[in-house]
UniProtKB/TrEMBL annotation, chain A:
It comes from Rufibacter hautae. One of its GO terms (cellular component) is plasma membrane. This is Phosphate transport system permease protein. It is a multi-pass membrane protein. Part of the binding-protein-dependent transport system for phosphate; probably responsible for the translocation of the substrate across the membrane. PROSITE patterns: ABC_TM1.
TrEMBL record, chain B:
InterPro entries: AAA+_ATPase, ABC_transporter-like_ATP-bd, ABC_transporter-like_CS, P-loop_NTPase, PstB-like. SMART domains: AAA (SM00382). The keyword ATP-binding applies. It is found in: Cell inner membrane. Residues 4-245 form the ABC transporter domain. Part of the ABC transporter complex PstSACB involved in phosphate import. Responsible for energy coupling to the transport system. One of its GO terms (biological process) is phosphate ion transmembrane transport. This is Phosphate ABC transporter ATP-binding protein. Keywords: ATP-binding, Cell membrane, Membrane, Nucleotide-binding, Phosphate transport, Translocase, Transport. PROSITE patterns: ABC_TRANSPORTER_1, ABC_TRANSPORTER_2. SUPFAM superfamilies: P-loop containing nucleoside triphosphate hydrolases (SSF52540). GO terms for cellular component: plasma membrane. It is a peripheral membrane protein.
């Protein structure tokens, strides 16, 4: 009887563990699914700013425009319909604020009650007009032609250089500058963190005496636990002014500042993981090297580093992973200008910083909101690639033994 | 002629007195075996000859150790130079994570040899001496980890021979090998004594009987008996030796 209850208890615990494991896995998968569902929604949306109408005269052969073209038109870089495949005539730009140039206030009405009608007349009257006005003033019997904006394509999204997610009348959703910004900052971070981290790891694993090591190792691992906003604060107060003074820049908030802060943040991971890898070098292997007349340095760079190279690569990749996903510290020190950087001394904007800064003001379900989710997908794929690389490198390590 | 000679060697690990006044001499071009139960100090004593004990914290050594007439614990001795003179083969095969060729060439490279042809010749010769050449000559560029355990150990022997030491220390070189590989290694030791002085630590008394010319029996940090191998095994003078070789303890 006792035995029966014992078995029942075991079964119960086993069942609970199975259920919780399954539920957790499914939850994680659902999160990824949700991310991609929202993110991919961007490709089926027209990039017209929320609640706006872009209209032309009904005889105008131009029926569809790209978001980028609309911006060019409003920036006056495109001024003739010919450039868009229409008749050779200058584009007459009209936005709702210009209405008083055409009609008196009485004609519009005190509460804009005649505005839809007037807009309708205006578009019908002007053959070369490109009008942009709020959707609420669209007349029911509108005689003009509403321009349809081409949906955002994957190529435009990934390779577009303009990120103006709230601009009127057509939002610009090119994330190339954000992707490059992320990569620049991460690359800089790893260039700073890898040599320093490796040097510290070698010191800890092979040179420091055990007492020093036993104090230093936990302290370094503790650094990994400091909240990133504290690192960001440190960067803002110390590193940003330093860079500004050192290079004589108008602002110190640059990719370099981000790289330095991220580099410092990645150090504990890199030191800890590569030090552990170096310490797995069998004592016999070190002794064999020394017994052949090699000195300590020769042993370190000819035996210990080659032996632990896969561990060191794992450390580097994990460091990059941390740098790519880091949000707060980067948001605080990189200046957040969404332009493609050419040097480390320019402000950049990273993907995580963009999401953190903009998600709060993006209306749910709108194109901006979905664009941010799509950015999240890109970030997810980047880190996925990194994790798969870690996996590949560490399995390769096991095969070599 | 004596290749290794020690006078009243004491060794302390902190407070522990591990070697208690050992005086003995090992003859040139002979195989000397150290036997004794675990913890008797035979490996510790062996590791004094190439100053491997220097790596351990808190070790203190007293007495004189002379190799080819030179006191190796004198201050003007460069440890790196000493270790070129005294090669060592370890308990477990411990090749480096490099190719077969680079493993053997390692000792030459770290000692500054740049001449490519010289290195190639020396690698080939060492591999031949270690009776491994025929098995690996077509895959010198392959990783040393691809070899079997016995082959790896012979590779380690070749690696030690490549820097042309005069003394080769072997610390239980066959304890991790299968019987066939053990037999091969023992045969190799026989051949090597033509050119080298060999000191071998072994747990296996039959092995000591098969490969060595002289045998020393250690017990609790003392050298109990040291004689020609045949004499020691057939006619031990000390009761403790008698007990050990007849298998009453150890």
């Amino acid at each position: 009887m006792k035995r029966y209850f014992h078995n029942l208890g075991e079964k119960l615990i086993e069942g609970l563990i199975t259920i919780s494991g399954t539920v957790t896995s499914i939850t994680v998968l659902l999160i990824v699914f949700f991310l991609f569902k929202e993110g991919l929604g961007i490709f089926s949306q027209s990039p017209v700013a929320e609640g706006s109408v872009i209209a032309v005269h009904q005889n105008n052969p131009v029926k569809e425009l790209k978001a980028e073209e609309v911006k060019e038109i409003f920036d006056q870089n495109i001024t003739n319909w010919k450039e868009l495949g229409g008749p050779n005539a200058p584009i007459k730009l009209f936005s709702i604020d210009d209405i008083t140039d055409y009609y008196t206030e009485e004609q519009i009405g005190a509460n804009f009650e005649y505005l839809p009608q007037r807009l309708n007349e205006l578009v019908a009257k002007e053959p070369n007009i490109l009008a942009f006005f709020p959707e609420e003033y669209l007349a029911k019997d509108f005689k003009g032609h509403q321009i349809k904006l081409a949906n955002v394509s994957l190529g435009d999204f990934l390779l577009g250089r303009q990120w103006y997610p709230t601009i009127q009348p057509a939002v610009q959703l090119g994330v190339l500058s954000l992707i490059l910004g992320t990569l620049w900052v991460s690359l800089g971070a790893i260039l700073i963190a890898l040599p320093l981290g490796l040097a510290s790891a070698i010191y800890l694993a092979e040179i420091a005496n055990p007492k020093v090591r036993n104090i230093l190792k936990p302290v370094i691992e503790l650094l990994a636990g400091i909240p990133s906003v504290v690192y960001g604060f440190f960067g803002l107060v110390v590193i940003v002014p330093l860079i500004q003074d050192l290079f004589g820049l108008p602002v110190g908030e640059t990719a370099l500042a981000g790289s330095i802060v991220l580099g410092i943040m990645a150090l504990p991971t890199i030191i800890s993981v590569s030090e552990d890898a170096m310490r797995t070098t069998p004592r016999a292997m070190k002794e064999a090297s020394l017994a052949l007349g090699a000195n300590k340095w020769q042993t370190i760079y000819k035996v210990i580093i080659p032996y632990s190279i896969s561990g060191i690569s794992t450390a580097a990749i994990l460091g990059i992973g941390r740098a790519i996903g880091e949000t707060m510290a980067v948001l605080m020190v990189t200046g957040n200008a969404s332009v493609i950087p050419h040097t480390f001394l320019e402000p950049v904007r990273t993907i995580p910083a963009t999401i953190a800064a903009e998600l709060g003001e993006a209306p749910q379900g709108g194109i901006h909101y979905q664009a941010l989710f799509a950015l999240g997908c890109i970030l997810f794929l980047m880190t996925l690639v990194i994790n798969l690389t870690v996996d590949f490198v560490s399995t390769k390590k096991k095969e070599n033994r | 002629m004596n290749s290794v000679e020690t006078k009243d060697v004491h060794l302390y690990y902190g407070d522990f007195h591990a070697l208690k006044g050992i005086t003995m001499a090992m003859k040139k071009n002979q195989v000397t075996a150290f036997i004794g139960p675990s913890g008797c100090g035979k490996s510790t004593y062996l590791r004094c000859f190439n100053r491997m004990n220097d790596l351990i914290d808190g070790v203190k050594i007293e007495g004189d150790i002379l190799i080819d007439g030179v006191d190796i614990y004198k201050t003007n001795i460069q440890v790196d130079d000493l270790r070129k003179h005294v090669g060592m083969v370890f308990q477990k095969p411990n090749p480096f994570p490099k190719s077969i060729f680079e493993n053997v060439a390692y000792g030459l490279r770290v000692n500054g040899t740049k001449d490519k042809r010289f290195i190639e010749e020396r690698v080939e010769r060492s591999l031949k001496q270690a009776a491994l050449w025929d098995e690996v000559k077509d895959k010198l560029k392959k990783s040393a980890f691809e070899l079997s355990g016995g082959q790896q150990q012979r590779l380690c022997i070749a690696r030690a021979l490549a820097i042309e030491p005069s003394v080769v220390l072997m610390d239980e070189p066959t304890s991790a090998l299968d019987p066939l590989s053990t037999a091969k290694t023992e045969e190799l030791i026989h051949q090597l004594k033509e050119e080298y002085t060999i000191v071998i630590v072994t747990h296996n008394m039959q092995q000591a009987g098969r490969v060595s010319d002289y045998t020393a029996f250690f017990y609790l940090g003392e050298l109990v008996e040291y004689a020609k191998t045949k004499t020691l095994f057939t006619n031990p003078k000390d009761q403790r030796t008698q007990n050990y070789i007849t298998g009453r303890f150890g």
